[in-house]
UniProtKB/TrEMBL annotation:
Source organism (scientific name): Streptomyces griseoviridis
Record's protein name: Membrane protein
Transmembrane segments: 46-66, 148-168, 180-211, 217-244, 256-276, 315-334, 381-403, 415-435
Composition skew (Polar residues), residue ranges: 1-11
Keywords: Cell membrane, Membrane, Transferase, Transmembrane, Transmembrane helix
C-alpha cells in the first residue's frame, strides 16, 4: 500500500515545467539534453531547482566578471576610451577614489573635495560601499586598491545575485524553474557590477518572497530596507494598496506599511539626525541633476534647439508618472479578475523608469525579477533582453565616440538615439504583454497553469470586496466551468481547463 507521505505528495499539484508549456524553452532545452524529466521536475534528486538555479546564477555572474577583465587589467585607469570600447565600464573603482573611500572618509559625515560635497547614494548603499572599503587591503598603489575594492564589491554583489535567483525560484512554488530566466538573463550578467543596484534588488526579491508566504511584516521590513538602499522599491506599496483595497486586506497592508516605515527610519534616522546635509544629498542630487543617459528626455534635448530646463523636466516627469499610477490603479480596480501583485509591481517600476530623466543600463536589474514573476514567457523575456543588450553596447559605443576626439571611434549621436529607442520599446513591449495578461487572464501563463496569484500571499484566491466596471461582475460562473473549482474572488472560478 502507498504510504501516507506518498499519498499526500501525489495530492499536491504537479510543478509546472516551462519546457513542457513554452516552445522557446523546449527548443532551448535541446542544448542540454531536452525537456525536464520527472525526477528533475519533482526535485527528487540532489539537483533541486533552487540549487541548480543558484549555481547557474553564480556561473553567469562569473561570466559577467570575465567580461570586465579588459578594464580590470588597465581599462579603468589608462585612458577613458578603452573602458567604453570594451564595454566594461563600472562606477565602483572610480568612486573608490572619487567619493573618499581611498582616503578613509566616512560617508555622509565627512565632506568630499570638489563640487559633490557628500556621497550621493541612499544610506544602506553607502553602508554597503563602506563595508567593501573595509575589506579592501591597504598599502600598494591606488590602482591596486581600486582593483581590490572592485573585487570586494563583486564578491558581495555575487551573493546578492544568488539571493535574487533563489528568492524568485521559491516565490512561485509550482513554477520554480522560471528562476532560470533570472539566472540566464544576459543583461543581468552584463550590468551586475556597474553599480550597487543589486543590493536593493535582492532585498526587494526577498520581500516579494515573504509576501508570497503571507508574512506581511517581514515583507514590509525588507521593502523598507530596500528603499533605504534605492528609492524605487517603495513604489510597490502603491499597487499593493489598490490590490488590498479590492480584496479588503487592510490589516495586512497596514502591517506591511508600518514595517516598511520603521525599517526605513531605523536605517536613516541616525544619519538624518547627526549628518543631515550628507543624508539629504541623495535627494537634492536627484532633483538637481539634469537629463541624462538612456531616457527619452535626452533624445528630446539633443534634438532641440531650446531644450527644457531641469525643473520643467522634473515637473513633466512627475505628471507622467502620476498619470501612469492612475492608469495602473484603474487597471487594478476594473480588470475582470484581480491582477497579480507581480504584474502591477512590474508595471509601476517600469513606468517609473520609462518616465524618469535617466535610464541607466543597470536599471534593467530592477525589472528582471519582477518581469519573471509577472510574465514568465521565454519569448517575450528574450525579446526584451535583446533590446537591453543592444542598449548596453550602444551607450558604451556612444561614450567611446564622444571621448575619442577627431578619431570618432564608436557610435554617433543618431545611432545612440536608436539604441535608446530599442530599450525603451523593449520595456514598453513587455508592459503591453503584462497589461494584456491582466485584461485577458486566460492568456496569463501563470493562471493558465491553474493558480490565482502565487506571489500574492493573502491575496491569493481572496474574494473581492470592491471593484469597478468589469471587475465588479463575475466573469467565471461556476456552472459554466468544467475544471477545478478554485475561488478567484467575487464568484469567479479558475479558467485553467484550456489545454496548453
Amino acid at each position: 500500500m502507498p504510504s501516507a507521505e506518498s499519498t499526500q505528495a501525489s495530492a499536491q499539484p504537479a510543478p509546472v515545467a516551462p519546457t513542457h508549456e513554452d516552445q522557446v524553452a523546449a527548443a532551448g532545452s535541446e542544448l542540454i539534453g531536452g525537456p525536464l524529466g520527472r525526477r528533475a521536475l519533482l526535485g527528487t534528486s540532489w539537483w533541486t531547482p533552487v540549487r541548480v538555479i543558484a549555481l547557474v546564477a553564480i556561473g553567469m555572474f562569473a561570466l559577467g566578471l570575465v567580461q570586465k577583465a579588459p578594464c580590470y587589467n588597465g581599462g579603468w585607469f589608462f585612458g577613458a576610451g578603452s573602458q567604453y570600447t570594451h564595454a566594461c565600464y563600472s562606477d565602483i573603482p572610480h568612486l573608490f577614489t572619487g567619493r573618499g573611500f581611498a582616503d578613509g572618509l566616512v560617508p555622509y559625515f565627512d565632506k568630499l573635495p570638489g563640487d559633490m560635497q557628500y556621497l550621493e547614494y541612499p544610506v544602506l548603499t553607502g553602508v554597503f560601499m563602506e563595508v567593501a572599503s573595509w575589506l579592501t587591503p591597504g598599502g600598494g598603489s591606488v590602482q591596486d586598491q581600486q582593483q581590490w575594492y572592485w573585487v570586494a564589491n563583486a564578491g558581495m554583489l555575487m551573493i546578492c545575485a544568488a539571493v535574487i535567483a533563489v528568492c524568485v525560484t521559491r516565490t512561485h512554488a509550482r513554477r520554480p524553474w522560471d528562476g532560470l530566466l533570472v539566472a540566464l538573463a544576459p543583461a543581468f550578467a552584463l550590468t551586475a557590477t556597474i553599480n550597487w543596484d543589486l543590493l536593493a534588488v535582492a532585498l526587494t526579491a526577498a520581500a516579494m518572497l515573504m509576501w508570497s508566504r503571507g508574512r506581511s511584516l517581514a515583507f514590509g521590513v525588507l521593502l523598507g530596507l530596500a528603499t533605504a538602499a534605492k528609492l524605487y522599491p517603495f513604489l510597490i506599496l502603491g499597487p499593493l494598496l489598490v490590490l488590498c483595497w479590492r480584496a479588503g486586506k487592510w490589516r495586512e497592508y497596514g502591517t506591511a506599511l508600518a514595517g516598511a516605515a520603521v525599517a526605513w527610519l531605523v536605517v536613516n534616522l541616525p544619519v538624518m539626525l547627526f549628518a543631515f546635509d550628507g543624508w539629504s544629498k541623495f535627494y537634492t542630487f536627484s532633483q538637481e541633476r539634469g537629463v541624462d543617459f538612456g531616457s527619452f528626455w535626452l533624445v528630446l534635448a539633443q534634438n532641440s534647439d531650446d531644450p527644457l530646463g531641469t525643473e520643467t523636466v522634473n515637473t513633466l516627469a512627475m505628471v507622467l508618472m502620476l498619470l501612469c499610477c492612475a492608469g495602473i490603479a484603474a487597471l487594478a480596480l476594473t480588470a475582470p479578475r484581480r491582477p497579480r501583485l507581480a504584474q502591477l509591481a512590474f508595471l509601476i517600476i517600469a513606468a517609473f523608469i520609462l518616465t524618469n530623466k535617466v535610464y541607466s543600463p543597470q536599471y534593467v536589474l530592477w525589472l528582471v525579477p519582477l518581469a519573471v514573476l509577472a510574465r514568465p514567457k521565454w519569448r517575450d523575456f528574450l525579446i526584451w533582453q535583446a533590446c537591453e543588450v543592444a542598449y548596453f553596447l550602444g551607450i558604451w559605443m556612444y561614450l567611446a565616440y564622444t571621448t575619442s576626439g577627431d578619431a570618432h571611434k564608436g557610435l554617433p549621436t543618431d545611432g545612440y538615439h536608436w539604441a535608446i529607442g530599442a530599450h525603451l520599446l523593449g520595456t514598453l513591449y513587455l508592459c503591453v504583454m503584462v497589461v494584456r495578461d491582466v485584461l485577458l487572464p486566460d492568456r496569463d501563463p501563470v493562471r493558465r497553469s491553474g493558480e490565482d496569484d502565487p506571489s500574492g500571499g493573502v491575496l491569493d484566491g481572496a474574494e473581492d470586496v470592491f471593484a469597478l466596471g468589469r471587475g465588479a461582475r463575475p466573469s467565471w460562473p461556476a456552472e459554466d466551468h468544467d475544471g477545478p473549482q478554485v475561488k478567484w474572488g467575487a464568484g469567479r472560478q479558475d479558467d485553467s481547463a484550456d489545454p496548453l
